[in-house]
Amino acid sequence: PQTIFRKDYLPPSYLVDTVELGFDLDPARTIVASRVTLRHNPASKSRDIVLHGEALELVQLRLNGKTLRPGQYELSGSTLTIRKAPLAVVLEIETLTAPVKNTTLSGLYVSNGNFFTQCEAEGFRRITYFPDRPDVMAKYTVMLRADKALYPVLLSNGNLIEQGELGDGRHYAKWEDPFKKPSYLFALVAARLVCQEERYTLQSGREVLLQVWVEEGNLDKTDYAMQSLKNSIRWDEQRFGLELDLDRFMIVAVGDFNMGAMENKGLNIFNTKFVLANSRVATDIDYAGIEAVVGHEYFHNWTGNRVTCRDWFQLSLKEGLTVFRDQEFSADMIGTDSGRAVTRIDQVRTLRQAQFPEDAGPMAHPVRPDSFVEINNFYTVTIYEKGAEVVRMYQTLLGRDGFRKGMDLYFERHDGQAVECDDFRAAMADANGRDLGQFERWYSQAGTPVVRAETNYDAIARTFDITLRQHCPASAGQEHKLPFHIPVAVGLLGADGRDLALSTDAKDRQGQATVVLELTGEEQTFRFHDIAERPTPSILRDFSAPVVLEYDYTDAELLHLFSHDSDPVNRWEAGQRLAMERLLKLTTAVATGKPLALDATFIAAQRALLVDETLDPAFRELALILPSETIIAEQMEVVEPQAIHSARQFMRRTLAAALKPELLAQYHANQTPGAYSPDALSAGKRALKNLALSYLLIAPQEAELALARQQFAEAGNMTDRAAALVALIHSGAEVGEHLHSFYQDFEHEALVVDKWFAMQAAAPGTDVAAVRKLMEHPAFTLKNPNRARSLIFNFTNGNPSQFHAADGSAYEFWAEHVIKLDALNPQVAARLARSMDRWRRYTPALQAHMQRALERVAAHARLSNDVLEVVSKALA
Ligand code: B3K
Ligand code: ZN
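^ thats the input. predicted complex w/ zinc ion below
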């Protein structure tokens, strides 16, 4: 396969002004007629028109009214080239596709008898021949024709301008999108669906129509998505002064979808997982996911659609920025400082769980990659979540107002354009009169920087010095890295636990509790004056940069921070450090057969936090979750998954035994009687209560089992029902009956059946044989991505001690299913292939098994580029 490089970018030879598309929709044989007006791009030397096309049958090709015969154009691989074309061209192209055979879920496909499209990144070329690249922006008119009884609803981007009957049972609808857009934002839906709709008045007084489209039986699950949409619209008006630019905005739910959702102009298409919710079927986490994803796709309307990417190397320009926006939206929706901190802690956990490993593994890439084989492999946590961290750092460096100025300038300069990450950085810099030249390295250098801190207190001079040193480990193609521009937020705690008022050399920031130090060199020392006592430093507050912070904290300092830090993120972080130190020692003890013990100090600190009623339940829950097995593994030179699992289980068991009365008290104190509400406070209470339950069910006695069984039977919502079932499964008690009744109650709710598979897949008692058995269940299918992920991915990524079984049998299972999935859906298969990314870090025996499994996949004939790129980078 061919590697594509950012440095090879050339502007398009032809620009497109208008696109008229006609669809005669038929599952087996859809005819697509396209009429495209092109003109030569003065910025290009080439007079060749290059169109992309895949899995298409070309029926007819006309240029300025004349039919082109083979020989007058070149068809090779996935491009169609017309050489030496006139300056102004009208192309008329007729193609055939078979949507029902399209299992890739990219392009036009059928899901549960309905038609949907997914065009990002390169799916439009599976619909018609077109210059399918984001810097070609055009105005679209779309005519849809289909059987009226089967497909009563016909939707596309923009405004509905005409509809009617065609005779012979068919009907049509014509849509026009007033805004020019890249092809990846094209969408259509032809389906039997119903909608919840609402007229909504924008701040400007303009009225818009909002719709959420779902299958008939799901109309009782659309309220939260609709509410989230309205909240998103209001938030973008208030926080960024950005208004909805269309008269109609639609969300459509589909059960077969490769990722979360898609921001097609005016016609967002969503995985059902991020639309459908009511208290019976959805958990608090599902509700939060819906709010975040509805917000995310809506916010793309400006950051992504109005201003889009010049090329796919710039993907984080829209994704990092839009994730940052949805994170801020979710935080503002909670509204309290502590709620905001809880969302921030969740973001840090995601980074450590998934992005740091990616940045240290074979698929490491900069936020703006320099090359790729398959763009679909680059919708990664680095592009999204690290990209969001990079955007957040602008706000940390420039302040909220400065950030807003930068956003305003960005839109002033680039509305209607396809631009680069550098353009965003320039807008931020210019709007604030700042030099952000060095900041560019966050885009160009891969890897997670390590910041090492050392401190020195001078009691006589009353100064406290913090010396920060940075380095970044080498990654593929990048041996030596230059220093980053890193904002390091710092506070100093006195012995009483309170923040000291800080005075630094920076004149404008006297007396604050937190200052942002800007580390730009390899090593810098920052001095604080008038420090009356040796303070405890709280470094990297609010996780002000996506780095690893090393500082030799003593246990006493960490305990002090864990009890007092006014910065909730660092308060949580102190607890994680306390736990991690012990978990690493316990893991070594397990591996070397030494006795295991947990100190009373740590237990006491956990107890104090658990019962501290001044803290939000949501925060307490997060503070009590131990670092995951994956995060522990990342700290080790040689990973022994079973030892990590046993060590962590030992710590959980010991805490559970020591804190039993407190856990029970919290279990009862955090009930949420009455009607279910997904608000943050209630969700936090449920989270703490259910964490308590999960601890109580470690080595349970009859009383605890009874508690869980009662919660399972009487739960008034899915959060509590699922939590009880998970706790029971993990307890090792006999749960056959519970699993059976849960399945019976929800067998017609696909998203709940996914949960049913997922909770079994991730249970430490589930080995690969049990997973294979579950695959024989009639409800299992590889063809539905949500279902495949629920069982297979939750096993390979969520059940490390079983996935890494000593005999390598689970790796064989992995190889087999990467290959099987690849034949159906390369994008999903390539995600599964990533489960083996960190294989070189395991024990030699496990490595040997993993290498064999990787080689087995790599050797398979007819592998997609998607999977081939992942496995060859892993083996390289
Ligand atoms: N932009 C889409 C992702 C498309 C992924 C294509 N493989 C969803 C989102 O980030 O909003
Ligand atoms: Zn996005």
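Residues 296, 300, 319, 322 surround zinc ion (ligand 2) (CB under 6 Å).
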